[in-house]
Fold:
Amino acid sequence: MHDNDIKKVLTSIMCFIIVIGLSGCINDSNIGNGEDKTDKDVLIIADFNSDFIHPYSQNSVKPNIFNGLVELDGNFKIVPALAESWNNPDNLTWRFYLRKNVKFHNGYDFTAEDVKYTFDNMYSNKPFIKEVIVVDNYTIDIRTINSYPGLLQEIALGYVVLSKKYNEEMEGYWQIGTGAYKLVECVENNYTKLERFDEYWKKPPSIKTVIFRLIESDEERINELISGNIDIATYNVNENIYEISQKEGIKFVKFPPLSTYILGFDLRENDSYAFPDDENPTSDLRVRKAIYHGINIDPLINGPFMGLATPASQFITPYIFGYNPEIERLSYDVDKARQLLEEAGYADGFEIELDCVTHKYKYNVENTRLIAEQLSEIGINVSIHTLSMEEFTKKVVVEKNTSFWIVGWGTISVDGGVVYDRYIKTEGFRNSGHYSNPEVDKIGMDASVEMDPEKRLKLLQEGFRIAIVDDVIVVPLFSQELFVFAKDYVEIEPRADVKVIVEDMRFNYNDI
Structure:
């Protein structure tokens, strides 16, 4: 299921939209400065993006309302949820043993029929699923067309279970789940309110009410946090973050890095995008290594990202299945870079255009400026081509008409096999550099059907090593650390998936 597709449907049917004449204010007796802190039972979280407050928002509201068969814990590891356990009777079958005594928010019982209904109706467009079979009320088989070792990871990323009976009765009102909180109110472009579900199958959460607010202005959001009108505020990286973190009663909560920034190359020797009539410089391994050696990531991390990033050595971070701890970054070495360029026949350097997205991403302006400045020291003259996200997607991803580009992406999967298939296989949708290595393709094919996790891990690690170390198809830059500001009394454990799981939070006034 794709969230963009679901949102088109759910925008009109998941929320009951309240028409209001005044903007911005939430009329709730539990919100404000006058309440006794020890009696506080409402958590208010504010973000600048309207998607954040949508009931189907993948990282905020949705995981509080719904459960899946399996889910991710705070360290990005798969844990049981509505399925207590699972096994593989054969390479095409995943058998799930379901949790009993689970209630939906309206009191209906959860059974295998709900799982089958959900997969048949919501995930029927998934090409790897052949059929879903009810074995009994609390056992279900998911049959795949081919061996699909990444099924658990796919489900854990956001496959939720809906009530068959309720959906059929309500003709598409999908807002009830089995999660810790139930949806009670949604005001478009304003807020979404959830209430604790006291019959939750796990221990009921300590916080009774949670409100997800939209406050687009960074300044207003921080002022509301300081004044105590909200409890958690998201914020973008800028020069004010450390000053804000020093405000009384405010703490700075960092999340483990999952998003990765890379520089990519056009690897075609002839008929390349920018050098159609000449040999393409970046098709030469020595040139790609020279660019790698010529970039010092410390100014990028400590400048535009204010130190909120860690050096990256590959496409994925240590939290993702397939990460290879033996891959190391090439050193920053200007002399080595110049030597490699000379050996490749580019002692006088060359000119190249760098595609990047700067609209809404101001730090990319400084990042690309620094990269161009550093590469000029080894003789490469980089011109910056700034694009919107839509323009970048069309030019770099779809048309693959690019010589050199910088891109950052968040978590597209807990499984490195997805990244492998998209970025380094010959036919990968995001293989914008036209990389093609038969050995890498063969390893990827083997990994895609290998059901033994240890064997599959080794395959992915070897494929990534060849692509990044031997072939240097990209220059990994850094992994960005995300963060929020929170009031001191909010206990919040940073999750690697950056999801807002309110049942794991609580108010604590003892330590402040």
Summary: Residues 1-35 have pLDDT under 50 and may be disordered. The domain at 67-174 is CATH 3.90.76.10 (Dipeptide-binding Protein; domain 1).
